Amino acid sequence: MSHGGSDKCEPNLVPLLDLVLQLVMFFMLCANFVLEQTSVAIVLPKAIAAKALTQGETYTIFLNVNAEGKVILSPGDQYKDSEGRTTETLDNAAQVETFLKRRAREDRAAVGAAANADVPLRSVVILRVHKDCRFEKTYPIMKACRLAGYTRVQLRALFDGNHD
Amino acid sequence: MSRREHKPGTDFVEPDLPITPMLDMSFQLLAFFILTFNPAPTEGQIALALPQDTGGPSTAAPSIVEDKPLHYIIRVSAADNGTIEKLTVLEADGVNPTGRDIPASVTAFRDEVKALAALVTQSKKTGKLTLEIGEKLLQEYVVQLVDQGLRAGFTDISPVPLDKKKR
Description:
The structure holds two protein chains of two kinds.
Chain A (H helix, E strand, L loop, with lengths): L13 H18 L14 E2 L3 E2 L7 E6 L5 E3 L5 E2 L5 E2 L1 E2 L2 H18 L13 E6 L5 H14 L4 E7 L5
Parallel strand pairs in A: 1-9, 3-8, 8-9
Antiparallel strand pairs in A: 3-4, 4-7, 5-6
Helix pairs in contact in A: 2-3
Chain B lengths: L18 H17 L7 E6 L21 E9 L5 E8 L8 E3 L3 H18 L3 E7 L5 H14 L3 E6 L6
Parallel strand pairs in B: 2-5, 5-6
Antiparallel strand pairs in B: 2-3, 3-4
């Protein structure tokens, strides 16, 4: 049996390439999925009863509280003090309250109820508190949420698979 | 000679796209992303009952129907290192104002709140749990206590400081 000298037998690499590119896309998307509003420096405590995150929440305010009790705002948020200086780290609960009251005014203005303090605020405050932060630091932040008019407050925790 | 004319006798040459270098590059990219893949741990949420305003008495008319929830208070004293030092169980309207001490551990707390939740179920009322927490207690323990309360069946759990002036 003879073969033609010029005939080449090449494997079809195109489907393989398609597959590999799809895998590359998957890993690229997963790798670039940075939680923009969260802070990597916060190590969350574990909880079994923590519920899955609700995807429907459009308006959220993230307060990342580090081990020292300082609040790190999301990249998009800024706190402006009385002298006009801006910062993304709040050192005390008074600053948190001022920040949240400003956000509350913005929330009310967005729904056309700027003057009506009885209108429930649309945003949810999400507290991401470091596991080594002391209660004396976290409680004033919770209190600041209430004083600013936010009633929907969530604590974030990591799912703990070790059921005892 | 026009551009579109072929030389007589020349076969039509199909353009050959080099797939192999592209595949090599794709494999390299794939290897890079697989090696650097580090998915973030899954986060969950715990809805928090914010502490109540410490104002005057409510102006609302008292309810004719007795639907007052069974209110339990667990006092959690904290050690200097942020762990649980002492646990005391009190009933808000109970006869024993000093309360009852239980072992200072999350396990003992879990057993206690399970027992309290069973009492709430028996009475067919709603339950309310207030955690009076020492200032130095770490968030890790606060979340563990709230977690155990939720798992026992309490839905209204309020963490407040031990010192009433700071509420």
